[in-house]
Amino acid sequence: MELTAEQEAIRELVHEVAVEEIRPVARETDRDATFPEDVWDTLAELDLTGLTVPEEYGGFDADRQTYALVNEEVAYGMLSVATALSVHGLATSCIAEFGDEDQRERWLPDMATGRPVGAFALSEPNAGSNPRQMTTEARREGDEYVIDGQKQWITNGSRAGVIVLFAKTDRADPNTITQFVVPADADGLSVGEKEDKLGLRASDTTSLTFDGVRIPAENRLTEEGKGLSAALSILTGGRVGIAAQSVGLAQSALDEAVSYAQEREQFDQPIADIQTIQHKLADMQTTVQAGRLLTWDAARKLERGDDGAPMAASMAKYFASEGATEVTNEAVQIHGGYGYTTDFPVERLYRDSKITTIYEGTSEIQQTVIARELLEQE
Length: 378
Ligand SMILES: Cc1cc2nc3c(=O)[nH]c(=O)nc-3n(C[C@H](O)[C@H](O)[C@H](O)COP(=O)(O)OP(=O)(O)OC[C@H]3O[C@@H](n4cnc5c(N)ncnc54)[C@H](O)[C@@H]3O)c2cc1C
Known about the structure:
The protein is an alpha+beta fold. The protein has 3 domains: 5-116, Orthogonal Bundle (Butyryl-Coa Dehydrogenase, subunit A, domain 1), CATH 1.10.540.10; 119-224, Beta Barrel (Butyryl-CoA Dehydrogenase, subunit A, domain 2), CATH 2.40.110; 228-377, Butyryl-CoA Dehydrogenase, subunit A, domain 3 (Up-down Bundle). The protein contains 10 helices and 9 strands. The protein has helices at 5-32, 37-45, 64-77, 79-98, 101-112, 227-263, 275-304, 309-334, 346-353, 363-377, and strands spanning 117-121, 137-141, 144-155, 160-168, 177-183, 189-191, 205-216, 265-266, 269-270. β8 (265-266) and β9 form a beta hairpin. It starts with a helix and ends with a helix.
């Protein structure tokens, strides 16, 4: 589980950015529900917006361990920024992995620089855990596809210039899910209002409505019917990213709790001297580190192309995200009444943590994947 010198250096660099540039804007952008575009530009300058783009298209081409480290450290700064970055990365991964040479040349060099921003549009109002239930249709007409339908909960929905879209070529046939690239300024495409959310407030989440949107057939990324397996394979990597983000968020809450416990005095002593508080901190530390090790294990299995990677990714995401909700809950508890106010970051961390158990596959879906893999091994 050792890191290379290069991985350590990237980790330190991104940690510094998280502390010095992301955290200082977290409270305000959470309150105003606005995305910190300056921070995005900083990440772009560091080539992190090209994290999952191959080098020949101007990207960083990070190995999976580095990908996990970057996600952890950006989330240490703020989960909204890490989510926006990782969803942009899902979009670039789809184009890099499933696109042909022309498609890669067309989109990846620009996306690696951070603009246009990418979105990944799989979920729908009535198709979340079960994407096969989607109803968005891309009908072939000559050299074009005509798209009708609605996508829901799309991260970067109002910021994106490039949308990786999943749609059926025949609405009645669940085996026709196909992957396309749609420019966000296409005629007939409209972006819904930003969702007013419990947490993750600086990250924009919108619906996207497609009303007779026409795209050239050359914007199709996968063969017809191969879109769902492509989405699922990309999401295995995405889950490692969310696991890492959960660890970063939880580490941030733990650090806040440790320093508060050493400063806050009750009964003529710092509360850190009270054994009950020490036990809470010990449990939090154990949860964070266990989540980190599961995440690194999954990242390494993915990098090696190990058959155990999907199960490892689901275990990491399941454990680290549920762990993040527990750790942030205890961090608020250790802050007492102050933790319940916006004056201390733990309140935001507590609200932000909940989404990690929901998106990119809920905890229940991760349990399903783990059990399925386990039973198939028997
Ligand atoms: C802030 C935010 C950002 C998001 N960003 C994106 C994005 O960028 N792109 C995108 O495509 N999607 C995105 N999503 C969507 C997200 O991935 C879905 O919300 C998630 O997959 C769950 O789907 P659902 O909300 O429809 O819940 P449902 O699928 O309706 O689930 C409801 C409940 O039923 C449970 N459940 C459902 N099926 C089963 C089962 N078979 N076994 C056991 N339990 C089950 C679930 O675990 C959950 O507890 C985002 C969501 C949010 C809230």
